[in-house]
């Protein structure tokens, strides 16, 4: 009897549950490693994409600042324009000034095109994402270019003429073009003031007043559609009023001192000095 083999107890539900639990534990112990690696890899890709975006953003912001600085230098240069050559054949000195301004503008175009090509801004998704990072410098460039174009041709530059400078490398958004033209009115007001200082008795100021009024009336309907335009148009209205005041002073003083050009210039200078806003810190 003692040699009879022991009967194997049949496995019950508790044993089956125990085996199932062991199997699940083995599976759960094996799965975390690949899953964790996959998550880490995904977050690594996210990190690289965010770092790439931030680096590109910083580079474009720096380019925008450089372009803004270079464009302001062009504007300062153009304010040395001889008003006697306005809407007429330029003298050799004025021609040299315009050629220098053109050279500086071409340099700025090169800076913008190089940045746009390096960051692949020709791609729609890249342009839409980073346009705001370079938009400020582009506005300042459009202001300088439109001022140069006005002094040279007495006309406003078109969006197509601006875009032709960049070809297909960089798209010029319509709202940047409009904002740049709105900024132009401030330079037109300064040009009108300088014109009186150089002896203009209304010819140049009258033309500047007409083009500034045209800009003001044309841009006003776009205020609800373009951010920042409302604030810029407020400045445009102020510039327009200053130019109107200058022309009014010229008209009144001409009636009083038309026979004495020197006295007329002196009275116009005094009128401008008395209407100038006080300097503030």
Superfamily at the CATH H level of the largest domain?
Answer: Translin, domain 1
CATH class of the largest domain: Mainly Alpha
Number of domains: 2
CATH topology of the largest domain: Methane Monooxygenase Hydroxylase, Chain G, domain 1
Outline, from the CA principal axes? Answer: elongated
As a whole number of angstroms, the C-alpha radius of gyration is 35 Å
Pfam family, one: Translin
InterPro entries: Translin_C, Translin_fam, Translin_N, Translin_sf
Subcellular location: Cytoplasm; Nucleus
GO molecular function: sequence-specific DNA binding
Report on the structure:
This protein is an all-alpha fold. The protein has two domains: 53-172, Methane Monooxygenase Hydroxylase, Chain G, domain 1 (Up-down Bundle), CATH 1.20.58; 174-275, Translin, domain 2 (Methane Monooxygenase Hydroxylase, Chain G, domain 1, Up-down Bundle). Helices cover 76% and strands 0% of the residues. The protein has nine helices and no strands. It has helices spanning 13-30, 32-78, 92-118, 124-153, 159-164, 174-197, 203-219, 229-257, 261-275. The chain is elongated. The N and C termini lie far apart (116 Å). Mean pLDDT is 86; it is low at 277-281.
Topology (elements, then pairings):
Elements: H1 13-30, H2 32-78, H3 92-118, H4 124-153, H5 159-164, H6 174-197, H7 203-219, H8 229-257, H9 261-275
Helix pairs in contact: 2-3, 2-4, 3-4, 4-6, 6-7, 6-8, 7-8, 8-9
Features of the shown structure:
9 helices; mainly alpha; elongated; 2 domains; 76% helix
């Amino acid at each position: 009897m003692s040699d009879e083999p022991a009967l194997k107890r049949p496995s019950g539900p508790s044993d089956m549950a125990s085996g199932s639990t062991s199997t699940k534990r083995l599976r759960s112990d094996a799965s975390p490693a690949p899953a964790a690696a996959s998550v880490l890899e995904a977050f690594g890709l996210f990190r690289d994409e965010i770092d790439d975006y931030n680096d590109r953003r910083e580079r474009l912001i720096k380019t925008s600042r450089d372009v803004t600085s270079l464009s302001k230098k062009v504007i300062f240069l153009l304010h040395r324009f001889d008003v006697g050559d306005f809407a007429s054949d330029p003298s050799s000195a004025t021609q040299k000034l315009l050629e220098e301004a053109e050279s500086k503008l071409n340099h700025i175009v090169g800076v913008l095109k190089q940045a746009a090509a390096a960051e692949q801004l020709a791609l729609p998704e890249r342009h839409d994402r980073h346009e705001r990072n370079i938009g400020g410098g582009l506005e300042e460039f459009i202001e300088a270019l439109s001022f140069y174009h006005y002094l040279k041709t007495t006309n406003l530059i078109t969006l197509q003429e601006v875009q032709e400078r960049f070809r297909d490398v960089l798209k010029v958004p319509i709202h940047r073009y409009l904002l740049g033209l709105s900024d132009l009115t401030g330079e037109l007001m300064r040009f009108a003031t300088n014109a009186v200082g150089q002896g203009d008795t209304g010819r140049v100021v009258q033309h500047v007043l007409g083009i500034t009024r045209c800009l003001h009336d044309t841009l006003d309907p776009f205020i609800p559609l373009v951010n920042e335009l409302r604030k810029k148009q407020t400045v445009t209205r102020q510039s327009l009023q200053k130019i109107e005041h200058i022309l009014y002073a010229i008209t009144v003083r001409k009636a009083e001192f038309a026979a004495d050009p020197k006295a007329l210039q002196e009275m116009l200078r005094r009128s401008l000095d008395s209407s100038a806003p006080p300097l503030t810190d």
